[in-house]
Automatic annotation (TrEMBL):
WD repeats: 208-249, 250-291, 292-333, 334-375, 417-457
Function: Involved in pre-mRNA splicing as component of the spliceosome. Component of the PRP19-CDC5L complex that forms an integral part of the spliceosome and is required for activating pre-mRNA splicing. As a component of the minor spliceosome, involved in the splicing of U12-type introns in pre-mRNAs.
Species the sequence originates in: Chloroceryle aenea
A GO BP annotation: mRNA splicing, via spliceosome
Annotated keywords: Repeat, WD repeat
Transmembrane spans: none
Keyword Nucleotide-binding listed: no
UniProt cross-references to CDD domains, sorted A to Z: WD40
Assembly: Identified in the spliceosome C complex. Component of the PRP19-CDC5L splicing complex composed of a core complex comprising a homotetramer of PRPF19, CDC5L, PLRG1 and BCAS2, and at least three less stably associated proteins CTNNBL1, CWC15 and HSPA8. Interacts (via its WD40 repeat domain) directly with CDC5L (via its C-terminal); the interaction is required for mRNA splicing but not for spliceosome assembly. Component of the minor spliceosome, which splices U12-type introns. Within this complex, interacts with CRIPT. Also interacts directly in the complex with BCAS2 and PRPF19.
Family annotation (PROSITE patterns): WD_REPEATS_1, WD_REPEATS_2, WD_REPEATS_REGION
Protein name according to UniProt: Pleiotropic regulator 1
């Protein structure tokens, strides 16, 4: 049976519990032992405490030398030591050569002897420390001490600590004072984003119609004479790059064409689609000459290796496959992703294959072993686009949460490009450092690659007769001269952009502020 108490009793008990909880002040210092008197009226416990503190806080500089004449001038080791500590030396049997000066009244810098001129009785502020370093007279004892004083770097090195481990935001500056150099702590400026390179804005100058469905993929041939597109109308069309006129239509896929690429090593065009098929077209006969069978679901993308005759495809079946172009054999099946693989890229250097997936990861693959080298898990949403920089050993990945830049070969994170808040379907970059991101809502953002500055945003109107909801960019690519940008869109058109030749840095200035860098790891 529960015993009932009055409210007064319950409140009193609660107060007592609270009081008991906080009555024991563990932060109080240990009371001095008054019974055991020791020389100089300092308690034995206090002496032990200060000896431990000396070892703990100054152990890394106990070996630092001080001139012997300073000791004689002071009249023995205990004159400047209010606690009567023993002086520690490297060898107890040898003559005393080392001295730590100043524990409570402390010197203004490491290794400076503690004298009436140099002792500091309280913690100075930053500005006070600098003014103190300048104002102190150059006494003989300071001149002597400076001959043997060590810098902060020496102290860190002797302690086995790298110099970088100084407190963040502070750096050591040497202040000239009366012919001497004193160490004073100066605030270091926070790192700011460097000024971005100026890029002329891009403007729309041509819209090409002809497809009867969404234009899903686009590629420019190595000779820069024509380009090829694949569409949801199941056709592949070849267009003249200079005039924008249709040259050829290829039929053969029985579902949406999701990827096209033109070989630089042979007169072949490769295509893939949602019908699980991967085809090789001979452009001298305009016919399919090879099929690559093996994927179990829609094939979302493909790329050719730049130096060897292999083709890499990625699919909704969560795998990427490496094919020998000539024999049609599947050399490797790259398994490891847990959801559809949306994009794949190849390069000659290691890692030779990079994939991005709807499982939010990016994988860097070992082509020879057919296994994952690195898995990057920083993205929080599907990675639909990956692009390699043509000159730097870096790449970028696009996801609805962020565009991220990475460094090869290990996938070290460089920076986030934030602001394109949409489903990013495609990325393209040129040698000038212009990164383009195209999104599902029809917006296109242009970025400076080095700094991540977003210098232009474009949202082109849909072609007449289309709904506003049909605004979407599925693919974009620069031509071989990098003077034209082609986009494949959901309004069944191909849009061509070029740089505005009339623009200058004066007419289109960079609206940039040197903001403090806030680069998140995730």
């Amino acid at each position: 049976e529960v015993q009932k108490h009055s409210v007064h009793t319950l409140v009193f008990r609660s107060l007592k519990r609270t009081h008991d909880m906080f009555v024991a002040d563990n932060a109080k210092p240990i009371p001095l032992d008054e019974e055991r008197q020791v020389p100089q009226s300092v308690s034995y416990h206090h002496k032990v405490k200060m000896a431990v503190k000396l070892r703990t806080e100054y152990g890394s500089v106990l070996h630092m030398p001080t001139l012997k004449e300073n000791l004689r001038e002071k009249g023995g080791p205990n004159t400047g030591d209010p606690y009567g500590h023993k002086q520690y030396s490297g060898n107890q049997g040898q003559e005393l050569e080392y001295l730590i000066t100043g524990t409570h009244p402390y010197p203004p810098g490491p290794g400076v002897a503690l004298t009436a001129d140099t002792k500091v009785q309280r913690m100075p502020s930053e500005s006070a420390a600098q003014s103190l370093a300048v104002a102190l007279p150059a006494s003989q004892s300071r001149l002597d001490a400076n001959r043997t004083a060590a810098g902060v770097g020496d102290i860190y090195r002797h302690a086995g600590i790298p110099e970088r481990s100084q407190p963040p935001g502070m750096s050591v500056a040497l202040v000239e004072a009366g012919g001497n150099k004193n160490s004073a702590l100066m605030a270091k400026k926070a790192p700011t984003m460097p000024k971005p390179q100026w890029h002329p804005p891009w403007k729309l100058y041509r819209v090409i119609s002809g497809h009867l469905g969404w234009v899903r993929c686009i590629a420019v041939e190595p000779g820069n004479q024509w380009f090829v597109t694949g569409s949801a109308d199941r056709t592949i069309k070849i267009w003249d790059l200079a005039s924008g006129k249709l040259k050829l239509s290829l039929t053969g896929h029985i579902s949406t064409v999701r990827g096209v690429i033109v070989s630089a090593r042979s007169p072949y065009l490769f295509s893939c689609g949602e019908d699980k098929q991967v085809k090789c077209w001979d452009l001298e006969y305009n016919k399919v000459i090879r099929h690559y069978h093996g994927h179990l679901s829609a094939v979302y993308g493909l790329d050719l290796h730049p130096t060897i005759d292999v083709l890499v495809t990625c699919s909704r079946d969560s795998t990427a496959r490496i094919w020998d172009i000539r024999t049609k054999a599947s050399v490797h099946t790259l398994s490891g992703h847990t959801n559809a693989v949306a994009t794949v890229k190849c390069q000659a250097a290691e890692p030779q294959i990079i994939t991005g997936s709807h499982d939010t990861t990016i994988r860097l693959w070992d082509l020879v072993a057919g296994k994952t080298r690195v898995t990057l898990t920083n993205h929080k949403k599907s990675v639909r686009a990956v692009v390699l920089h043509p000159r730097h050993y870096t790449f970028a990945s696009g996801s609805p949460d962020n565009i991220k830049q990475w460094k090869f070969p290990d996938g070290n994170f460089i920076q986030n490009l934030s602001g394109h808040n949409a489903i990013i379907n495609t990325l393209a970059v040129n040698s000038d450092g212009v990164l383009v991101s195209g999104a599902d809502n029809g917006t296109m953002h242009l970025w400076d690659w080095r700094t991540g500055y977003n210098f232009q945003r474009v949202h082109a109107a849909v072609q007449p007769g289309s709904l506003d909801s049909e605004s979407g960019i599925f693919a974009c690519v620069f031509d071989q001269s990098e003077s034209r940008l082609l986009t494949a869109e959901a309004d069944k058109t191909i849009k061509v952009y070029k740089e505005d030749e009339t623009a200058t840095e004066e007419t289109h200035p960079v609206s940039w502020k040197p903001e403090i860098i806030k680069r998140k790891r995730f």
